[in-house]
Amino acid sequence: MPDYNLSYFYVFAFFVAAAIFITLLLGLARLIAPRKVTVEKARTYESGEEPVGQAWSRYPTHFYVFALLFVVFDVEVIFLFPWAVLFRTLGWYGLVEMVIFIAILVVGLYYAWRKKALNWY
Amino acid sequence: MPIGPFGIDPGIWAPLRLLLAVALTLFLVLNGALLMIYLERKIQAIIQDRTGPHHVGPFGLLQTFADAIKLLSKEDVRAKATDKAFFLMAPMIVFSPMVASFVVLPFAPDFVGADLNIGLLYLTTLGSMAVLGIVIAGWASNNKYSLIGGLRSAGQLISYEVPQILSLVTVVLVVGSLSMVDITRSQAGPFVNFLVLPFAFVGYFIAALAETNRTPFDLPEAESELVAGYLTEYSGMRWGTFLALTEYGEVTVVCSIMTTLWFGGWQGPGVDALPALGIVWFTLKVYVFVLAFMWVRATLPRMRIDQLMDFCWKVLIPMALVNILATAVLLLAFPGNLWPIAIVNWALVAALVFALPALQKRRLRTFRERTRLSAA
Known about the structure:
The complex is a heterodimer of chains A (121) and B (376). Chain A has 121 residues and is mainly α.
């Protein structure tokens, strides 16, 4: 098996090993630990009060805005990685292109900032 | 017939090496967690002028071990309203990527699970997978505290991922490789990357605190308002794997990244003569950062969520972008000379240090104005 594939086999093996390990650990806990299910214990915790409704409901849109911003910037970062590795080969040409790319994103960030999308309240 | 290391047949050595690597990693994760929890409690106790655990074993060394046994024998309660499959799966979803991160960490020369040529990208990818597990845990618990904790955590982790990765890119610019081994080898001698790129390090350190959910960024599990955040509904060993194993494992991974990227990884006096000494140097450097994390935890108060988001998007990200562009321009303008980059970077660190009090003053002023308006 070539070295390249072997490396990724390691990655895969680590994932599987971790999953197996957790399963074994929780299995052991299940063997040792007591299991006495009562109505009171199976109730959702709400500081000792009777739970009101469900938690699966609407939540603030801040999270949505930040998730959108994150998607934009994370994709940018994925483009930065190959550029950084090949930086010396690409030289000034690559740098100018990256400056233009980042400048467009900075305009986006500035817009979001002025639109108060970055304000939590 | 070719002979592998230690005179073992290569056909047997390859699977044996894999097994050893997996076993050693799990051993490290488990014992690292035990040790770090002990250290955390002891160090916080010392800082707060208490004695900390001292009953079980000499100096209370066996306290965390006893806690682990206690966790194993506790009932694994699951509330009726939870989403069963996801609730049970969530600890695994955060634990597996953390363990898999150990594949690329270079502990010593030729002592690395697999030297992926995209090592750093791989680490950031796995680092962001923890968010999934936390959000799933928060949502599946069907508990209001858990949901708020999980969502806060999502907002915080994805926000701080951007400055974190931007800091890493700066190092990649200078080194020109994503492989953890190459990055370490490039820092032979006393001139480690930290001296050249301190701002990237500071940015990464702050973002790493946020990524591992540690104080001052432990909002997702802020106990004074959210009980235990996304962990509220978890109990027993399932809670143990979630909090103890995963959190401390992630701290180890993050500190290893800092060691490798900015402080020369395994490099140190005597490593050329005796490569195994690299493990000692690497571990020592990692634990310096672990102790720094604990120091921060015992010292700084928790931030508010709007301060947290403001600091990330309005301070760290713009500065990290400036840092990347400045580094790139100076690298091309002065080939083979790192002095200009170092000067700009130290200047940025100084700017950050001096800007923070000014920022805080402005924030206080707006806060006072707001209270005055609401009072009027």
